[in-house]
Design brief:
The protein is mainly beta. It has a single domain, classed as AttH-like domain (AttH-like fold, Beta Barrel), CATH 2.40.370.10.
Length: about 375
């Protein structure tokens, strides 16, 4: 049937979507829309899968950007000095019930807050390309992070809500002719879910970019899973060390979460860099007992290489790549000079943790840019002695 004369065939029709059948609305809008008109609105997740031996580190995620009409996903696997990356992007569909998928990448919520299936199909033309099918199961309740708000001058740059969870993972990863089995007790999983407003590339920076560039920024995000407990530490600081985001929690199933005071971190850096080789986080129990969370780095994956986090030069989250876009590539991480901007982005380090005689595993996420007085860094070109 031809389109009516007053309705061009390519014009979108605004109709209810399937989610509108459910009593989940937060505003008098269709679930197709978000409350804010900010182009930087986002809703996404990240999963970390940590090999306890340090042989492999898999990081993957998926994001929706409702006001730019984009859905995208990525996966990076570090094995040795090689980083294998898969990225996919597409137009955001109106209805988003069911598996979250973009190109070869899928995340299926089998049981909310409990069980997930993570999958990546191989490249049909390359049987040695990265693929996986993994079951991720929560071992501890999800916990909220503090409400995260950042301004630059009078401009709201970031406002996000996020929860974090730790668990176990089983399944198989295939790449380059190698099959990596994720056996129970040999891998740890962490994840977070966040949504709100966060900068997407492509917007004119205006006065804030020209006159209000931060002197420095220091960030730590540490989810550490032990057999009987989960520890979350967050610290965000300005150039002078002023703490703008802070959290330290001990989480156990069936018990009230325990706050662990004001975390202080001593970080050892590789000389001539800001690349951490280990750290100790000083915490305090509610009975004022000092606690030390020891951190040993096992493997590192810069989020600005392959994973689409700024200042990545080849692809960043939320950017329109056209319909049905998929990209696969490998990066050689043996030569840091080949990726000079990676040091100006957040790096996720697979880590072994110690706490009161216990050994655990998780992520030591670290980013330090510009001046940071507590660390002795004086500017963007300053490194550890």
């Amino acid at each position: 049937m031809p389109a009516p004369a007053d309705r061009p065939a390519d014009r979108q029709v605004d109709r209810p979507v399937a989610l509108d059948e459910y009593p989940v609305h937060q505003a008098p809008l269709s679930m197709k829309h978000v409350v804010t008109g900010d182009r930087n609105a986002y809703d996404r997740c990240i999963y970390h899968l940590v090999d306890h031996t340090g042989h492999a580190l898999l990081i993957l995620g998926l994001g929706v950007y409702p006001n730019t009409g984009v859905i995208d996903a990525y996966a990076t696997l570090r094995v040795g000095d090689t980083l294998h990356a898969v990225r996919a992007s597409d137009a955001l569909p109106d209805d988003r019930i069911g598996p979250l998928s973009v190109g070869p990448l899928r995340i299926t919520v089998d049981e909310p807050l409990r069980r997930f299936t993570l999958a990546c199909d191989p490249d049909p033309g390359d049987p040695d390309s990265l693929s996986y099918e993994i079951s991720w199961t929560a071992d501890f309740p999800a916990v909220w992070e503090p409400h995260h708000v950042q301004y630059r001058g009078d401009r709201l740059m970031l406002e996000g809500r996020r929860f974090v969870q730790a668990g176990s993972c089983t399944g198989v990863i295939r790449v380059g002719g190698e099959e990596i089995r994720l056996a129970p007790g040999e891998w740890t999983g962490t994840r977070d879910r966040s949504w709100g407003v966060r900068p997407i590339p492509g917007e004119e920076g205006g006065r804030a970019a020209e006159e209000l560039r931060p002197e420095g920024f220091h960030w730590l995000w540490i989810p550490a899973r032990f057999d009987d407990r989960f520890v979350l530490v967050i610290a965000q600081e300005d150039a002078d060390g002023h703490r703008t985001l802070n959290e330290a929690l001990l989480v156990r199933e069936g018990e009230r979460d325990r706050q662990l005071g004001w975390p202080r971190t001593d970080i050892s850096y590789r000389p001539g860099t800001r690349h951490p080789t280990g750290a100790v986080v000083h915490l305090t129990d509610q009975d004022r007992k000092p606690l030390e969370l020891g951190i040993e780095i096992l493997a590192s994956s810069p989020l600005a290489v392959g994973a689409g986090y700024p200042p990545a030069a080849d692809w960043q989250h939320g950017t329109w790549q056209g319909r049905d876009w998929t990209d696969r590539r490998t990066y050689d991480l043996s030569d840091p000079s080949a990726h000079p901007m990676a040091a100006y982005g957040v790096i996720d380090h697979a880590a072994r943790f110690t706490l009161e005689g216990r050994t655990g595993y998780g992520i030591f996420e670290h980013g330090s840019f510009g001046r940071h007085d507590p660390s002795g860094f004086t500017g963007y070109d300053s490194t550890a002695p």
